[in-house]
Every structure is written in structure tokens, then in C-alpha cells.
Input
Amino acid sequence: MATRASIDYKALANFRYEIRRYLTFSEQAARAAGIEPHQHQALLAIKGLPNSVKATVGVLAERLQIQHHSAVELSDRLEANGFVRRVRSSDDRREVILQLTGRAQRLVRDLSMPYRAELHTAGRRLLHALEAALAQPRNGRSSGMSLPDSNKNRRGPKKVATSR
Output
């Protein structure tokens, strides 16, 4: 029996493997620096935001692809550990902005150097694996799988709080 489409499972599996290798390196480096990987990811997400984007809990949730309540808990832990401080926005006093402390700035800088070095090595493998995965023949048929739009909220619509 013929398959619907030719899929290079080895290329897809290898790409996933190379991603996991890099993520494992990242997690080990964060732990060696005395911080949990998700906390480092949050600090890097805040540090790496474009100047036009405010570091709110909602933005952090989107950047890390986690639920809002999880981003609140993560922000609480970051604040308790002295990595962020919450500051009211001068534009909208209801809005709370997460700011990295000097300690967090140093930690992100110190961890970013080995990450950059690892990217020089792992990046070539990732790029090769991605190119192999993308080289799959496309015969005009849809696989039935759609990719999410990166500009949309993947967690569904926001719930609106109602007063009692």
C-alpha cells in the first residue's frame, strides 16, 4: 500500500534530537550557574524583548508559551530571588512591568557567553538537520497538519475577569 506523502522521519527525528541537545546544554548551564532553567529562560526573554515591547507578565507568558498564572508564579519566584522587580507603568498605573535587577543582568550576560559558543557548534548541526527536514518533497497535498501562526496567542482567547 502506498503512503499518502513521502515523509523523511529520520530528518524530522534528527532535527528534534538536535533541538533537544541544545536545550539540554542550556538547562545544564543554567543549573551550573545556580538558577533553574525556566528562570533563566524568563530572564533571557525579558532581556531580549524589543524596546517597543513592555515586559509584562502577559508578554512573558507568551514568550515562554506558558499559561498566565504560571508566568505570575514564575515572576513571584524571580522577584523573591532578587532577579526582577515589579514597577508600575508610568503610562498606565494598572500595568506592572518586570525589570531585571543588576544581579539578573550579570547572570544573563555570564550565561550568554557559553550559549553563543555552543551555538557555533550546535548551530551547524541544527541548520543541517533543519535543511534536511525542509527538503522533504511537497507534492501539493496538505498533510492535514497546520502550523500555528507565531503572531497569535496559542493558548486560546484571554478570559475576561468579571466582577461579582
User: Anything to note?
Assistant: Residues 9-134 form a domain with the Arc Repressor Mutant, subunit A fold (CATH 1.10.10.10).
